[in-house]
Amino acid sequence: MKRFRLALMLSLLVASITTVAYSLPSNSSETYYYSDGTFTDEVGYRYVTCNGPIYRGGVTSQWWIQYGESCSNGGSYCNQSYYDAVAGQWFVASC
Hints:
17% helix; six-stranded antiparallel β-sheet
């Protein structure tokens, strides 16, 4: 019985100090949100970094531009998006 208790306590101790591993993003990105389709008045932003933190400010909107870079090879991209309420769909295009 003593061995069982000891094994149980040891198992609980190991389980309590084990941490969960989270993966880091494959791309860093900067997303800027705008008030309308002219993309002139910025109303919010979202930054995702390669080492994990996400920074946000302002508000999101249906008009945004996102710049990104690969965390592994430095390759970059740019996307521009908006939501067309009449068509009921998102449109995404390269910048």
